Amino acid sequence: MRIILYQSSTGTTERYAKLLAERTGLPCQSLEKTTAPTDAEVIFLGWLMGDSLQGLKSVKARYANLIAVGAVGLFSMEKPRAEMEEKIAAGAPLFLLPGSFDPHRIKGMTRILIGMTLKALKSKVGDGGNEKEREALRFFEEGVDGFDPDALQELERFLRDGTTQAQTKKEEDPV
After folding, report:
1. Is residue 100 within 8 Å of residue 12, measured between CB atoms?
2. Which CATH fold topology does 2-102+145-164 show?
3. CB 5 within 8 A of CB 34
């Protein structure tokens, strides 16, 4: 059995998981409610908090057949891919998907951490701040929707053909 499992905080990761399920015909369940057997082949999509992919440890502990991982995030998208792969340590091919942020949907400890970040940014921007700090403040106050259905194409190709864009490029450009 092959299944898409996801862990979502504000709904963006769930949107990607359900769209991927629709496009591939695979079943899709939230990690919290899954009934998938432990020997299932798992495609896991989770959201990034800092450099940590939420739910990945649980998936790795529960399922031996992790075949692909999708990481949904915003700021981390600017980091070099190799750095992200090292920090996330997915143990399977990693696919980076642009995320969204809705300050009104954040809850729990994340809300507290965001509140502290927002307070610090307001202080910096109040003292002038640079453009990047002003942009970050707008981001935390207003949110952003970075959901991009086309971002799933590489993961879809991998599930269909078993290759990633990086593998295809190496085959086309032998050294």
Report:
1. yes
2. Rossmann fold (3.40.50)
3. yes
- The dihedrals phi and psi of 65, each to the nearest 5 degrees, come to -110, 65
Inter-axis angle of helices 131-142 and 108-126, to 10 degrees?
140
In this structure, are residues 8 and 34 in contact, taking their beta carbons and an 8 Å threshold? no
- Domain boundaries in the chain? 2-102+145-164, 103-142
Dihedral in degrees, nearest 10, Cα atoms 161, 100, 127, 117 = -90
Q: What tokens were used for 133?
A: 């700090």
**Average pLDDT over every residue of 61-79:** 85
d(CA 135, CA 122): 11
Cα separation, 76 vs 72, in Å, equals 9
Going by C-beta distance under 8 Å and a sequence separation of 6 or more, which residues neighbour residue 139? 74, 101
Q: How far is CA 164 from the centre of its chain?
A: 17
Cα distance between residue 170 and residue 101, in whole Å:
35
Q: Do residues 156 and 24 make contact, with C-beta atoms less than 8 angstroms apart? A: yes
The whole-model pTM stands at: 0.81
Token reading at 78: 């600017």
Tokens of 74: 């915003």
Short-list 9, 6, 27, CA closest to 17: 6
- pLDDT tens track for 125-152: 887 778 888 887 887 888 888 899 999 9
